[in-house]
């Protein structure tokens, strides 16, 4: 039997329909769990993340996130439910469970309606959904050839390529906002953003879309998204898309307060879900418009949340464990808000310690950082290219058991020619802090860099 063509599939997969009692009892989130100790202890945190490699100081939560054992156990239950009886899972469990997860996301981000929330694989998928409808508007003549899309220069690499792939080929003009780094204030970002909007509106063009990061990835800086969205409204920008891949669980998210048209964030980076799951928020007035999942299924045309809820046979378990993540968060004092506060304070403390040790600087003031912060590396390391940055990152992993991204920040021409050019900071470590991290992790990075400096190491030694 093909479930796609069966009338019962429509009824069984209706998110508004109540699941039967047996189906609800089968769902992992419906089972009564033993009360968890509160507050969670350090020993219990270590147990939750005992699967991490003990030989590695993992101060790079930002790249792939982290999933506690209690949540991965819940994921395994969902996977086994599917394998045990796939038809029962498809007809009776999947859609009600996805709806529960969407309702929780709605509350987390202060959305008005659950129909504004779609669950997708990651923020890159969400970007494709938004950009495809922009591309169609160009091809169909709703937008004029040469109209602009504005994005930050530090937009995530795959999102930048997606913008060019969907917009440039459709006849749109892409403008990058050249953000300063190191950065000292929101005003610097606002100034450059206004200049980019003015360029986008030159010669009678319209700015059709602004793509704004909430937290840039590399270098990592918290962007004043609410103010930039307000400026977009004043300047007549048609739509605002916030790429907030790092945001949920890292900074407070209130989509009504930010007031953008679209907002996406990964739930597997800072919200303890297993990879890969993200949400895409679409304002209610836009949620029913021409938004579609890139994978076309038999649910095409029934609204993005429904389309996203079934894209064919695949593992949906990462989208179903959000209730289990909430249970994990409830074991912490003040929940996710308390975790955010602790992570921010600790990463700032460790960042300042490292900058003082290496006699360098932070890449931004603490208030412009989240649970990640950029720390300048000693100039003597000779980080003079992106290749150097990647090589020294690999060297730290292979020789010292430290996992941390390294960013190459090319100096301006006048800095190269200045009298202090030999002491320029051109490399920055992006350190993260998550609940499993301990101070020893950062001490290992400190000691590794100090040893390299003492031994006269330079990146040229790795490329020869």
UniProtKB/TrEMBL annotation:
Residues 1-10 have a biased composition (Basic and acidic residues). Pfam families: Aminotran_5. Residues 101-286 form the Aminotransferase class V domain. InterPro entries: Aminotrans_V_dom, PyrdxlP-dep_Trfase, PyrdxlP-dep_Trfase_major. Keywords: Lyase, Pyridoxal phosphate, Transferase. Residues 1-35 are annotated as: Disordered. One of its GO terms (molecular function) is selenocysteine lyase activity. Its EC number is 2.8.1.7, 4.4.1.16. This is Cysteine desulfurase 2, chloroplastic.
